[in-house]
Amino acid sequence: MKRWLPLALFALLAGFLAKGLFLNPGEVPSPLIDRTAPAFSLPLVGEPGRSFGPETMRGQAWLLNVWAPWCVSCRQEHPTLMQLARENRVPIVGLNWKDDAREAAALLARTGSPYVAVPDDRDGRVGIDYGVTGTPETYLIDRDGIIRLKHIGPITPAVWRDRFEPELKALGL
Amino acid sequence: MKRLFLALCLAMAAATAAAMDPDADDPAVEARLVELAKDLRCLVCQNESLAGSQAALARDLRREIRVQIRAGKSDREVIDYLTARYGDFVLYRPPFRPLTWLLWLGPLAFLGIAAAVWYRLAARRPPEPMPSPDRLADAERLLEDRHP
User: Strand, coil or helix: what is B20?
Assistant: First the structure.
Protein backbone atom coordinates (compact mmCIF):
# COMPACT_ATOMS: atom_id res chain seq x y z
CA MET A 1 0.00 0.00 0.00
CA LYS A 2 2.65 2.43 1.12
CA ARG A 3 4.81 1.60 -1.87
CA TRP A 4 2.06 2.47 -4.30
CA LEU A 5 1.13 5.79 -2.74
CA PRO A 6 3.66 7.94 -4.68
CA LEU A 7 2.63 6.26 -7.92
CA ALA A 8 -1.04 6.87 -7.14
CA LEU A 9 -0.35 10.52 -6.38
CA PHE A 10 1.62 10.86 -9.58
CA ALA A 11 -1.20 9.26 -11.57
CA LEU A 12 -3.69 11.67 -10.00
CA LEU A 13 -1.54 14.68 -10.87
CA ALA A 14 -0.94 13.38 -14.39
CA GLY A 15 -4.69 12.87 -14.74
CA PHE A 16 -5.41 16.47 -13.81
CA LEU A 17 -2.71 17.79 -16.13
CA ALA A 18 -3.93 15.61 -19.03
CA LYS A 19 -7.46 16.89 -18.48
CA GLY A 20 -6.15 20.46 -18.44
CA LEU A 21 -4.32 19.85 -21.68
CA PHE A 22 -7.57 19.04 -23.48
CA LEU A 23 -9.72 21.79 -21.99
CA ASN A 24 -10.48 24.66 -24.32
CA PRO A 25 -9.69 27.91 -22.47
CA GLY A 26 -11.74 29.79 -25.08
CA GLU A 27 -14.93 28.11 -23.84
CA VAL A 28 -15.73 30.74 -21.23
CA PRO A 29 -19.06 29.93 -19.53
CA SER A 30 -21.59 32.68 -20.18
CA PRO A 31 -23.47 34.25 -17.27
CA LEU A 32 -26.29 35.07 -19.72
CA ILE A 33 -27.63 31.52 -19.95
CA ASP A 34 -31.26 31.44 -18.74
CA ARG A 35 -31.39 35.24 -18.82
CA THR A 36 -33.35 37.44 -21.18
CA ALA A 37 -31.44 38.23 -24.35
CA PRO A 38 -30.27 41.87 -24.08
CA ALA A 39 -32.39 44.28 -26.12
CA PHE A 40 -30.89 46.27 -28.97
CA SER A 41 -31.83 48.08 -32.12
CA LEU A 42 -29.38 48.00 -35.02
CA PRO A 43 -29.56 48.94 -38.70
CA LEU A 44 -29.89 46.03 -41.12
CA VAL A 45 -27.15 45.24 -43.62
CA GLY A 46 -28.40 45.76 -47.16
CA GLU A 47 -31.76 47.19 -46.06
CA PRO A 48 -31.21 50.93 -45.58
CA GLY A 49 -33.54 52.64 -43.14
CA ARG A 50 -34.69 49.43 -41.48
CA SER A 51 -33.56 48.20 -38.10
CA PHE A 52 -33.71 44.99 -36.10
CA GLY A 53 -34.27 44.19 -32.43
CA PRO A 54 -34.58 40.80 -30.72
CA GLU A 55 -38.18 41.58 -29.72
CA THR A 56 -39.24 41.05 -33.35
CA MET A 57 -38.37 37.36 -32.93
CA ARG A 58 -40.68 36.86 -29.92
CA GLY A 59 -42.85 33.78 -30.17
CA GLN A 60 -40.28 31.63 -31.95
CA ALA A 61 -36.93 30.09 -31.07
CA TRP A 62 -34.06 31.51 -33.08
CA LEU A 63 -30.30 31.59 -33.41
CA LEU A 64 -28.19 34.69 -33.02
CA ASN A 65 -25.04 33.94 -34.96
CA VAL A 66 -22.22 36.45 -34.39
CA TRP A 67 -20.04 36.58 -37.47
CA ALA A 68 -17.90 38.89 -39.59
CA PRO A 69 -16.92 38.90 -43.26
CA TRP A 70 -13.20 38.61 -42.45
CA CYS A 71 -13.72 35.64 -40.15
CA VAL A 72 -12.35 32.35 -41.47
CA SER A 73 -14.12 30.05 -38.98
CA CYS A 74 -17.40 31.70 -40.01
CA ARG A 75 -16.83 30.55 -43.58
CA GLN A 76 -16.19 27.11 -42.16
CA GLU A 77 -19.59 26.99 -40.47
CA HIS A 78 -21.37 28.67 -43.38
CA PRO A 79 -22.38 25.39 -45.14
CA THR A 80 -23.85 24.05 -41.89
CA LEU A 81 -25.87 27.24 -41.41
CA MET A 82 -27.02 27.10 -45.04
CA GLN A 83 -28.18 23.53 -44.48
CA LEU A 84 -30.15 24.59 -41.39
CA ALA A 85 -31.71 27.46 -43.33
CA ARG A 86 -32.70 25.12 -46.17
CA GLU A 87 -34.32 22.73 -43.70
CA ASN A 88 -36.13 25.67 -42.05
CA ARG A 89 -34.98 24.20 -38.74
CA VAL A 90 -34.81 27.51 -36.92
CA PRO A 91 -34.47 31.12 -38.14
CA ILE A 92 -30.91 32.46 -37.95
CA VAL A 93 -30.06 36.11 -37.36
CA GLY A 94 -26.49 37.00 -38.32
CA LEU A 95 -25.00 39.79 -36.23
CA ASN A 96 -22.27 41.45 -38.33
CA TRP A 97 -19.74 42.08 -35.56
CA LYS A 98 -17.37 45.02 -35.91
CA ASP A 99 -16.93 44.83 -39.64
CA ASP A 100 -17.95 46.76 -42.71
CA ALA A 101 -21.62 46.43 -43.73
CA ARG A 102 -20.82 46.62 -47.46
CA GLU A 103 -18.29 43.78 -47.14
CA ALA A 104 -20.90 41.73 -45.29
CA ALA A 105 -23.54 42.38 -47.97
CA ALA A 106 -21.09 41.56 -50.76
CA LEU A 107 -19.96 38.32 -49.14
CA LEU A 108 -23.52 37.14 -48.49
CA ALA A 109 -24.48 37.99 -52.07
CA ARG A 110 -21.59 35.83 -53.26
CA THR A 111 -21.91 32.82 -50.94
CA GLY A 112 -25.64 32.88 -50.19
CA SER A 113 -27.17 33.99 -46.92
CA PRO A 114 -28.47 31.63 -44.25
CA TYR A 115 -29.83 34.64 -42.34
CA VAL A 116 -33.33 36.05 -41.98
CA ALA A 117 -31.78 39.35 -40.90
CA VAL A 118 -28.26 40.78 -40.60
CA PRO A 119 -28.06 43.53 -37.96
CA ASP A 120 -24.91 45.63 -38.19
CA ASP A 121 -22.98 45.97 -34.91
CA ARG A 122 -20.32 48.33 -36.25
CA ASP A 123 -18.82 49.43 -32.91
CA GLY A 124 -19.31 46.11 -31.11
CA ARG A 125 -21.53 47.49 -28.32
CA VAL A 126 -24.24 44.87 -28.77
CA GLY A 127 -21.51 42.24 -28.86
CA ILE A 128 -20.31 43.43 -25.46
CA ASP A 129 -23.86 43.22 -24.07
CA TYR A 130 -23.97 39.60 -25.20
CA GLY A 131 -20.51 38.84 -23.83
CA VAL A 132 -19.07 38.14 -27.26
CA THR A 133 -15.33 37.42 -27.18
CA GLY A 134 -14.84 36.71 -30.87
CA THR A 135 -16.44 35.27 -33.98
CA PRO A 136 -18.16 32.94 -34.53
CA GLU A 137 -20.38 32.63 -31.49
CA THR A 138 -23.96 31.43 -31.56
CA TYR A 139 -26.80 31.90 -29.10
CA LEU A 140 -29.98 29.86 -29.00
CA ILE A 141 -32.83 32.08 -27.84
CA ASP A 142 -36.23 30.61 -27.02
CA ARG A 143 -39.69 31.92 -27.87
CA ASP A 144 -39.80 33.94 -24.63
CA GLY A 145 -36.53 35.67 -25.47
CA ILE A 146 -34.44 33.66 -22.97
CA ILE A 147 -30.91 32.64 -23.95
CA ARG A 148 -30.75 28.84 -23.65
CA LEU A 149 -27.35 28.05 -25.09
CA LYS A 150 -24.16 29.74 -26.17
CA HIS A 151 -21.67 28.09 -28.44
CA ILE A 152 -18.19 29.53 -28.98
CA GLY A 153 -16.55 28.58 -32.27
CA PRO A 154 -17.91 27.29 -35.58
CA ILE A 155 -21.03 25.13 -35.70
CA THR A 156 -20.18 21.80 -37.26
CA PRO A 157 -22.78 19.11 -37.96
CA ALA A 158 -21.48 17.30 -34.84
CA VAL A 159 -21.82 20.42 -32.68
CA TRP A 160 -25.31 20.96 -34.00
CA ARG A 161 -26.30 17.37 -33.26
CA ASP A 162 -24.70 17.21 -29.79
CA ARG A 163 -25.41 20.67 -28.40
CA PHE A 164 -28.21 22.40 -30.28
CA GLU A 165 -30.57 19.53 -31.16
CA PRO A 166 -30.98 18.35 -27.52
CA GLU A 167 -31.72 21.92 -26.44
CA LEU A 168 -34.25 22.39 -29.26
CA LYS A 169 -35.87 19.08 -28.25
CA ALA A 170 -36.13 20.37 -24.69
CA LEU A 171 -37.97 23.38 -26.13
CA GLY A 172 -40.35 21.00 -27.90
CA LEU A 173 -39.02 21.71 -31.39
CA MET B 1 22.84 58.72 -24.74
CA LYS B 2 22.19 57.83 -21.13
CA ARG B 3 19.35 60.32 -21.00
CA LEU B 4 17.80 58.84 -24.14
CA PHE B 5 18.01 55.36 -22.62
CA LEU B 6 16.34 56.57 -19.44
CA ALA B 7 13.59 58.28 -21.41
CA LEU B 8 13.05 55.10 -23.39
CA CYS B 9 12.78 53.02 -20.22
CA LEU B 10 10.29 55.45 -18.71
CA ALA B 11 8.25 55.49 -21.88
CA MET B 12 8.10 51.71 -21.93
CA ALA B 13 7.09 51.55 -18.27
CA ALA B 14 4.32 54.07 -18.80
CA ALA B 15 3.05 52.64 -22.07
CA THR B 16 0.16 50.41 -21.23
CA ALA B 17 -1.90 49.74 -24.30
CA ALA B 18 -4.63 51.84 -22.71
CA ALA B 19 -2.52 54.97 -23.08
CA MET B 20 -2.62 54.58 -26.86
CA ASP B 21 -6.40 54.56 -27.23
CA PRO B 22 -7.78 57.50 -29.21
CA ASP B 23 -10.24 58.42 -26.44
CA ALA B 24 -7.57 58.41 -23.70
CA ASP B 25 -7.62 62.16 -23.14
CA ASP B 26 -8.45 62.63 -19.45
CA PRO B 27 -5.54 61.70 -17.10
CA ALA B 28 -7.89 61.22 -14.12
CA VAL B 29 -10.10 58.82 -16.06
CA GLU B 30 -7.02 57.01 -17.38
CA ALA B 31 -5.59 56.57 -13.89
CA ARG B 32 -8.78 54.95 -12.67
CA LEU B 33 -9.13 52.89 -15.84
CA VAL B 34 -5.63 51.44 -15.55
CA GLU B 35 -6.12 50.76 -11.83
CA LEU B 36 -9.34 48.86 -12.64
CA ALA B 37 -8.24 47.19 -15.83
CA LYS B 38 -5.00 45.71 -14.55
CA ASP B 39 -7.05 43.24 -12.48
CA LEU B 40 -9.32 42.41 -15.42
CA ARG B 41 -8.66 39.74 -17.97
CA CYS B 42 -8.60 40.38 -21.69
CA LEU B 43 -11.03 37.81 -23.12
CA VAL B 44 -9.09 37.42 -26.34
CA CYS B 45 -5.55 36.93 -25.04
CA GLN B 46 -6.43 35.50 -21.69
CA ASN B 47 -3.10 35.99 -19.96
CA GLU B 48 -3.03 39.69 -20.71
CA SER B 49 -4.77 42.29 -18.60
CA LEU B 50 -7.40 44.55 -20.07
CA ALA B 51 -5.05 47.47 -19.41
CA GLY B 52 -2.20 46.00 -21.46
CA SER B 53 -3.96 44.28 -24.35
CA GLN B 54 -4.03 45.58 -27.92
CA ALA B 55 -6.85 43.22 -28.92
CA ALA B 56 -9.76 45.00 -30.57
CA LEU B 57 -12.18 43.67 -27.97
CA ALA B 58 -9.95 44.96 -25.14
CA ARG B 59 -9.95 48.39 -26.78
CA ASP B 60 -13.75 48.31 -27.01
CA LEU B 61 -14.07 47.26 -23.38
CA ARG B 62 -11.74 50.06 -22.28
CA ARG B 63 -13.90 52.47 -24.26
CA GLU B 64 -17.01 51.21 -22.39
CA ILE B 65 -15.22 51.47 -19.03
CA ARG B 66 -14.22 55.07 -19.84
CA VAL B 67 -17.83 55.89 -20.65
CA GLN B 68 -18.89 54.44 -17.30
CA ILE B 69 -16.15 56.24 -15.36
CA ARG B 70 -17.12 59.55 -16.99
CA ALA B 71 -20.74 58.82 -16.06
CA GLY B 72 -19.61 58.71 -12.42
CA LYS B 73 -20.01 54.96 -11.90
CA SER B 74 -18.21 53.38 -8.94
CA ASP B 75 -15.52 50.71 -9.39
CA ARG B 76 -18.03 48.16 -8.07
CA GLU B 77 -20.57 49.14 -10.73
CA VAL B 78 -18.00 48.89 -13.53
CA ILE B 79 -16.90 45.43 -12.33
CA ASP B 80 -20.55 44.32 -12.09
CA TYR B 81 -21.16 45.61 -15.62
CA LEU B 82 -18.37 43.37 -16.92
CA THR B 83 -19.13 40.26 -14.86
CA ALA B 84 -22.81 40.45 -15.89
CA ARG B 85 -21.65 40.00 -19.48
CA TYR B 86 -18.48 37.96 -19.32
CA GLY B 87 -18.76 36.19 -15.95
CA ASP B 88 -16.28 35.99 -13.09
CA PHE B 89 -13.75 34.84 -15.68
CA VAL B 90 -12.84 38.47 -16.40
CA LEU B 91 -11.62 38.88 -12.82
CA TYR B 92 -8.04 37.94 -12.03
CA ARG B 93 -9.16 37.74 -8.37
CA PRO B 94 -12.29 35.63 -8.48
CA PRO B 95 -14.79 36.17 -5.62
CA PHE B 96 -14.98 33.72 -2.72
CA ARG B 97 -18.10 31.65 -3.31
CA PRO B 98 -19.03 27.94 -3.26
CA LEU B 99 -17.82 27.44 -6.83
CA THR B 100 -14.38 28.87 -5.99
CA TRP B 101 -13.93 27.36 -2.52
CA LEU B 102 -11.64 24.69 -3.91
CA LEU B 103 -9.62 27.34 -5.73
CA TRP B 104 -9.13 29.51 -2.66
CA LEU B 105 -8.92 26.79 0.01
CA GLY B 106 -7.19 24.09 -2.06
CA PRO B 107 -3.64 25.27 -1.29
CA LEU B 108 -4.45 25.42 2.44
CA ALA B 109 -5.92 21.91 2.26
CA PHE B 110 -2.76 20.62 0.58
CA LEU B 111 -0.62 22.31 3.25
CA GLY B 112 -2.76 20.61 5.92
CA ILE B 113 -2.35 17.21 4.24
CA ALA B 114 1.41 17.71 4.00
CA ALA B 115 1.58 18.68 7.69
CA ALA B 116 -0.44 15.59 8.68
CA VAL B 117 1.79 13.28 6.64
CA TRP B 118 4.94 14.84 8.08
CA TYR B 119 3.58 14.55 11.62
CA ARG B 120 2.68 10.88 11.18
CA LEU B 121 6.07 10.01 9.70
CA ALA B 122 7.84 11.84 12.51
CA ALA B 123 5.71 10.15 15.20
CA ARG B 124 6.18 6.69 13.76
CA ARG B 125 9.99 6.78 13.70
CA PRO B 126 11.20 4.74 16.75
CA PRO B 127 13.32 6.63 19.27
CA GLU B 128 17.07 5.92 19.22
CA PRO B 129 17.66 2.98 21.62
CA MET B 130 20.16 3.44 24.46
CA PRO B 131 23.38 1.45 23.81
CA SER B 132 23.68 -1.68 25.91
CA PRO B 133 25.95 -1.64 29.01
CA ASP B 134 28.42 -3.92 27.21
CA ARG B 135 28.82 -1.54 24.30
CA LEU B 136 29.13 1.39 26.67
CA ALA B 137 31.94 -0.41 28.45
CA ASP B 138 33.62 -1.12 25.09
CA ALA B 139 33.42 2.53 24.16
CA GLU B 140 34.83 3.52 27.52
CA ARG B 141 37.78 1.18 27.04
CA LEU B 142 38.55 2.42 23.52
CA LEU B 143 38.59 6.00 24.76
CA GLU B 144 40.93 5.03 27.57
CA ASP B 145 43.30 3.36 25.04
CA ARG B 146 43.52 6.47 22.91
CA HIS B 147 44.15 8.86 25.76
CA PRO B 148 46.07 7.04 28.40
Answer: helix
| Statement: residue B52 has pLDDT above 60 | yes
Number of domains into which chain A is organized: 1
Nearest Cα of chain A lies from the Cα of B87 at a distance, in angstroms, of 5
- Rounded mean pLDDT, B6-28: 69
Of A31, A124, A133, the CB nearest to B43: A133
Residue B123, CA distances (Å) to B117, B119, B126, B127, B128 in order: 10, 6, 8, 9, 13
- Whether residue A21 lies inside any domain: the answer is no
Collect all residues of chain A within an 8 Å Cβ-Cβ radius of residue B85: 31-32, 128-131
Amino acid identity of A142? Answer: D
Q: For residue B13, what pLDDT is reported?
A: 47
Give residue B16's pLDDT: 65
User: Which domains are seen in chain B, by residue range?
Assistant: 2-95 (1.10.8.640), 99-146 (no CATH)
Cβ pair B86:A123 closer than 8 A:
no
What residue in A sits closest to B67 (Cα-Cα)?
Answer: A125
Provide CB contacts within 8 A for B114, sequence distance 6+.
Answer: none
Specify the pLDDT at position A103: 95
Interface of A with B (CB under 8 A): 25, 28-32, 98, 123-125, 127-134
Give this prediction's pTM: 0.81
pLDDT digits (tens, 9 = 90+) for A75-130: 999 999 999 999 999 999 999 999 999 999 999 999 999 999 999 999 999 999 99
How far is Cα A147 from Cα A143, in angstroms, rounded to an integer?
Answer: 10
Q: Do the beta carbons of residue A63 and residue A141 sit within 8 Å? A: yes
Chain B residue with minimum CA distance to A32: B85
- Choose among B44, B61, B83: nearest Cβ to A134: B44
Cβ contacts of B84 on chain A, cutoff 8 Å: 31
Domain that holds residue A148: 31-170
